[in-house]
Amino acid sequence: MTLRPRLVSLATALPPHRLDLASVEAFATRLFDPADSEIERLLPSFGNTGIAERRSALPLERLARPRGWRERHADFLETAPPLAERAILDCLEQADLAPDEVDALVVTCTTGFTVPSLDAQLMQRLPFRADLQRLPVFGLGCAGGALGLARAAALAQAAPGSKVLFLSLELCTQTLRPQDHSKSNIIACALFADGAAAALLSTDAEAPAPALAGWGERRWPDSLDVMGWHVEDDGLGVLFSVEIPRIARKGFAEAADAFLAGRGLARGDLDGYVLHPGGAKVLAALEQSLGLPCGRLQDEREVLRLYGNMSGPTVLFALARKLERGLTGRHLLGALGPGFTAGFVLLET
């Protein structure tokens, strides 16, 4: 009998700079020339995102000035490791474990990179064992929380009894390029935020710790231009198609059905969902796709309202909220990200 990995603990962490809607709108008005008709048309969209506040690892004045690759890399190294450390230590404290009891570390991050990788940077800060297995993953974006959790679950299942730590960290605000007045960059400014989440998985855990009963993904063909980065001289330019809500509405349920069918299940066998709140329009599209009543994804909307779209970690914030509220039964955790890809994890309590 194959042992199933369980979610032993889950912790979230936020950077220090709190930004409310008014401050973000004022920042965008200063940053982007409101005399430009396209920008003038898009600025009201900030109030329609469903986001009341968010966090940033850097103050707005540092984000407003042009930065090249050298400064961006320095900013990432300054802010990412401390945020990651807080999420990890909280997660391990919940599990009553020390860093040297962790056997493997999976890290997903798409908004910054460093060599040696972020996991190696964390080994310098925390007393992990020298033989810690490391898996840094770049490029999963908003699907990183779901797909990274899946990779960690696969490692835990392959080595029964091992303790696998998963970290999803994104500093989306640091990718802002002030000189870019494109629609995609303005919408990204309206939506994105910073945050981190850490989860510990092991087959040694027992109920009521949720079991990860399965995981998988589905990539749509000819969809490389839907979401991602294009590399520019001054940083990463956001690729953000207006087709994302339509794709979610038309294709997410089909992808979820195929994943569930592979495990002998259907949507009717689920007690609920844990979905990445990519934005108000995306959440509405997911509800339509899955045949859910409008507003059913209440926890996801509240996470979006309080923290914005933090990319990969956001679905784990939604999971943490649902666990705090007494998550029971069988739930499908899902997220959409670059590729264009849907990632799934089946949770059972």
UniProtKB/TrEMBL annotation:
One Pfam entry name: Chal_sti_synt_C
InterPro entries according to UniProt: Chalcone/stilbene_synt_C (IPR012328), Chalcone/stilbene_synt_N (IPR001099), Polyketide_synthase_type-III (IPR011141), Thiolase-like (IPR016039)
Lineage: Bacteria, Pseudomonadati, Pseudomonadota, Alphaproteobacteria, Rhodospirillales
UniProt domain Chalcone/stilbene synthase C-terminal: residue ranges: 221-342
Keywords: Acyltransferase, Transferase
Domain Chalcone/stilbene synthase N-terminal, chain residue ranges per copy: 73-204
SUPFAM superfamilies in alphabetical order: Thiolase-like
Residue positions of the active site: 142 (acyl-thioester intermediate)
Gene3D superfamilies on file: 3.40.47.10
GO MF annotations, alphabetized: acyltransferase activity, transferring groups other than amino-acyl groups
Keyword Lipid metabolism: no
Name of the protein in question: Alkylresorcinol/alkylpyrone synthase
Family: Belongs to the thiolase-like superfamily. Chalcone/stilbene synthases family.
Biological processes annotated in GO: polyketide biosynthetic process
Taxonomic source organism: Tistlia consotensis USBA 355
Keyword Membrane listed: no
